[in-house]
Amino acid sequence: MTSTVQEYSVDQEIIDFFRKTTATRSECDAAAKDLVGGDVIPVDVQGVCSYTVYAGPKQEFVVQFRLRSLSLKPETAALAREIHGDLTPEISFKGQIGADFDVNGREPLNIYVMTRIKGVSRLDFILAHEEPENSLEYFSWRKTLITDVARFVSLSLRVSFYCRYFYFEILILACLVSLPRRGKNLKLSISRIKTRCEVHTKENCNYYLLPCLTGFIPLSNNLSTLCQLSSHFQWYYYTKTLATVILWLTPKLATW
Amino acid sequence: MVDPKTCHLVGVIDWAEAEIGPFGTNFHSLQPLMSKLHLRDGWIRYHNYDALQETFWRVFSDEAGGLDRDTVRAIKSARVVGLLRSRGFTSRLANAPEPVPIRDDESGAYNMMILDGLLLNPVTSFMD
């Protein structure tokens, strides 16, 4: 058995995608034309869970057909737009295409119309420029982009919450322990985090582990200083995960 | 998405798998803007990596109205968790099987290289 590296083929990707669904490509193209008009042209890189085309008189829309099991959460897209404005597409749901049920497990598709963001993908930008990656031109382009990205992410900090770092360190430890061993290096970083976690857990964890495990969530002072979270739900979700992780980790750590 | 001439950010698309999480969980995805994976040599930083780091944190902190030490530390820890969640496990798509830790086999090798580069290799690791 040999495996060969295959070049990305957008046509093959599209054929593979339509094997998973009860809708056909021509139905989708017709639906896109009905919705926004203009020529229907598939985007260069297709996802494995969707078929995406440009359409509209000026190719100013993106129409995406997604497997129903992977439908978009409208509230996420709306929140992104609320925070980042025109830097994110406006998305509207336009119903379903394809039959509901199929004995072969094929699914219908959800249809979304989005405003098209002008510009090119970062990958296409790189492909279009032949300058060496450590040239002054690239230094300057990267600096431009990272500055814009820093502003972009700062917009979501204003509406976000963060947890105290020790919470993350326990999760990091859990992930590292679950991954294949990487010899000395990994052992070192695990023992370093472990020491830090032990300090943190001694200081803080006992206060909230019990209520989390029983599913009861009193908001005491101890708890609210633990994580600065923006909502009750999120606080519950993350502390509950953490409790599970610590319980799962405890026996594993003995072997490290 | 960027401007084809200036490389200014013009938009961010594909919010399908976006979810609400602790701030900084997605910061590992900034790494490809200042470094890259080389399939033979592993993770490599572009020569202006340090300047880009400095620019990012300065602009981000200014825009956020200043960040205290604990907040920065929490964000940087969240960045590691985000990387591990994204690269240390199999796919999290809603129609895929429950994610399990990757293995050091053919399908996990690419992700292992990324994790090795960003977490373990002292030259390229972003773990403080």
Structure description:
Chain A has 256 residues and is α+β, with helices and mostly antiparallel strands. Chain A folds into 3 domains: 10-118, Phosphorylase Kinase, domain 1; 123-157; 162-253, no CATH class. Helices cover 52% and strands 13% of the residues of chain A. Chain A has helices at 10-18, 25-36, 74-84, 122-128, 136-157, 165-178, 183-213, 221-226, 232-253; strands at 41-42, 50-55, 61-67, 91-97, 109-115, 162-163, 227-228. In chain A, β1 (41-42) and β2 form a beta hairpin. Chain A starts with 9 loop residues before the first helix and ends with a helix. Chain B is mainly alpha-helical and 128 residues long. Chain B has one domain. Chain B has 3 helices and 2 strands. Chain B has helices at 49-63, 69-87, 109-120, and strands spanning 35-38, 42-45. In chain B, α2 packs antiparallel against α3. The two termini of chain B are 30 Å apart. The mean pLDDT of chain B is 89. Chains A and B meet through α3, α4, α5, β6 and α6 of A and α1, α2 and α3 of B.
Number of helices of chain B: 3
Q: How would you sum up the major sheet of chain A?
A: 5 strands, antiparallel
How many β strands of chain A by DSSP?
7
- Cα-atom Rg of chain B, whole angstroms? 16 Å
* Low-confidence residue ranges of chain B: none
Terminal residue distance of chain B: 30 Å
Sketch the major β-sheet of chain B. 2 strands, antiparallel
Q: Biggest interface in this structure? A: A-B, 72 and 68 residues
Number of strands of chain B: 2
Domain count of chain B:
1
Cα radius of gyration of chain A in angstroms: 24 Å
Runs of chain A in which pLDDT lies below 50 for 5 or more consecutive residues are 1-5, 204-235
Going across the major beta sheet of chain B, what is the strand order?
1-2
Q: What would the principal axes of the Cα set say about the shape of chain B?
A: globular
CATH fold type of the largest domain in chain A: Phosphorylase Kinase, domain 1
How many structural domains can be distinguished in the coordinates of chain A? 3
- The amount of helix of chain B comes to 25-40%
Strand content range of chain A: 5-15%
- Beta-strand fraction estimate of chain B: 5-15%
